[in-house]
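Trying the structure run again after the queue cleared.
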Amino acid sequence: MKVSKDKTARDHLSTKYRWVPNAIAVYVPTKEAEGIARKVLLQKYGKAKNDIDPIWPDGSSMRFLPIKGSGIKNERTREIVRKRMAYHIWQKAHEVTIDTNFKNIHDTIESFQGKAFSEIILELSNEDEGSRYFTHFNRAWSADPMIQCWQLSVRSHLFTEARTVMGNIKEYLVDVYGIEVEHFFSEEKNMDQPWMRALTSGTQDDDENWFDEDEDYVEIMIEKGIVD
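Done. Tokens:
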């Protein structure tokens, strides 16, 4: 498909921003507070420690990179930013995600000791490497705009192991933190549906029955006169 030359067209924008880094907007009350906020955020979240990006209050792992309205004059700073942007773009291009049935991810319970559910999930790590399985949460599409659906962005080399962890995540959390963790799981389990398992397993096999055997929807529609 040829990409439109119209820079406001949807296909043009989707191609242009396909691999752009994720971003967070930080709002300040006044123009005067902008410089102060930038300095504080750079001090707290602008540097990596032991090759690990800073952890934000919601559990996300990323470095703060302020936006400049003009070009970067300092050559050393410009080179650092170039390398960081190249790394972020590489991460985005190789990003893999896992669908979840999580809800209320910013809430907490007493056994979390002040941490949000999102922090608990993002702290899960591989025992051998000590690397976290997940980097951040993504908002996923939902047919119901009143329901928030979430995906987890996974470190690509840990995807298979992370998917196994997610398969037993509710049982694990109940065992560690108690039955109250059910507050963070929706009743609808998309991962239990055959079509979802096929998508996430990387196979398109259709040897499973995708429809309930106890309901014949065609007959119901015929009875209602919807189809002949």
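The longest strand covers residues 134-140. Worth checking whether this holds up in the mutant runs.
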